[in-house]
Amino acid sequence: MSRYLVDKFLYRVDRDPAWLERYMADPARCVADWEASEAHALGPETTSAHSFTDDERTALAAKDYVRLYAMGAHPFVLWTLMIPVFERDFPSPRELQADYANRIRPHGRPDFRT
Amino acid sequence: MLPPVAPGRAMAKVVCILGMPHNPFHHRATRPPRERWTDDLRNMQDRFDAMRDRLRRARPDALVCIGNDHFHQFFMENMPAFIIGKMDRYDGTFYNEVREFDLPRVTIPGDAALSNAILDGLLGANVDMAFSDELKVDHSIVVPLLFSRPELDLPIVPFMSNCVAPPLATAARFNAIGCALRGVLDGLDDERRIAVVGSGNLSLEVGGPLQFAPHPMDAAFDAQAVAWIANADVEGAARECTYERLVSAGNVSHGYLNYLLLLGVANDRRPTYAEGLRRKGSTQAYFAWEDLG
């Protein structure tokens, strides 16, 4: 399990319009591309300690925020990315906020410390 | 311990300390003409207007701005517990804050020499500060300034804490850092008037099951939290504000810790103004320590 790497994906994609566009257009492809090119990048260097589990990769590729939340993805970082990903599916931010909260509620408050 | 200040030296004065919310939606909410505002919004703006008046009355020459980065510049590959910016200019507002909140991109003057003096003072007092020569500030610094000093004309020293990525420093440590900061400010060889503008929140949830509920996350916590500051009850706050208690009040309630830091900057004295303003989805805290200089 790499909560850290899941959070890194969420954080980096949310803060980069080009990656955000790729995630919204084709999430599975985006996750694969990001894993190949960015997951281990530390500035110009690379590190090797973290890798996605199959569950994490699948959940990210499916935009399955309920599963990611339950696994302990950082709630703030997860939500921040899911706003642009899902906001167009709802008539207003209020509906998205309520729907999102209702779906994650059964999972309570998972530990999100990395 | 800090070295004693030599007699006859110029001394900086902390003239005012203000604590307020930094809700990133406030800017957009207050764009329409005032006659279209709800009473709830007017109430909030009245509090910010009062903060603006207090800051103007204090006639500061420079501001120390206490905030916390929300996963904008800092992430878990390198997460400073407390960090100070030391630059002569700061850019504010990140891409996703423009995207989600319509916050303006801003440029705020800085004062690298003042930052360096404060940094040296804190390190000299055995506070192991991180520092940054390339710091961009997010809504925790920008929003309070847009409401309390919209001219963005005073040089700032940004001072950021980690309130979002556990593990966090303890509540007692936040307060002690504030006390140490005040000691340094009081001892600066600088005759300018310095105001401290800090931001945080009470019980609050973002990305959790209670987010955007039409009521405060934890009204009992909010009442206690305001009272700890109002009564300068550092012991009570330090005892009760464990990581777990704060999470139970909402997953980002740790923003309250910055108010405990501000209380430390006030030498743990009672504020001249303290209010928990009950609003539709949250209670918001406003604190002021005036007439210090």
Q: How do the strands and helices of this protein lay out in sequence?
A:
The complex is a heterodimer of chains A (114) and B (293).
Chain A: H1 3-14, H2 17-25, H3 27-37, E1 41-42, E2 45-46, H4 54-61, H5 65-71, H6 75-86, H7 93-104
Antiparallel strand pairs in A: 1-2
Helix pairs in contact in A: 1-6, 2-3, 3-4
Chain B: E1 13-21, H1 26-29, H2 39-58, E2 62-67, E3 82-85, E4 89-92, H3 95-101, E5 106-109, H4 112-124, E6 130-132, H5 139-148, E7 156-161, H6 171-187, E8 193-200, H7 219-230, H8 234-240, H9 243-248, H10 257-265, E9 273-278, E10 283-289
Parallel strand pairs in B: 1-8, 2-7, 2-8, 3-6
Antiparallel strand pairs in B: 1-10, 3-7, 4-5, 9-10
- End-to-end gap of chain A: 10 Å
Percent strand of chain A: under 5%
Mean pLDDT of chain A: 96
Q: Averaged pLDDT of chain B, please?
A: 95
Principal-axes geometry of chain B comes out as globular
Oligomer: heterodimer
Radius of gyration of chain B: 18 Å
Radius of gyration of chain A, whole Å: 14 Å
Count the E strands of chain B: 10
> What is the helical fraction of chain A, as a range of percent?
55-70%
Structural class of chain A: mainly alpha
The parts of chain B where pLDDT drops under 50 for at least 5 residues are none
Largest sheet of chain A: 2 strands, antiparallel
In one word, what is the shape of chain A? Answer: globular
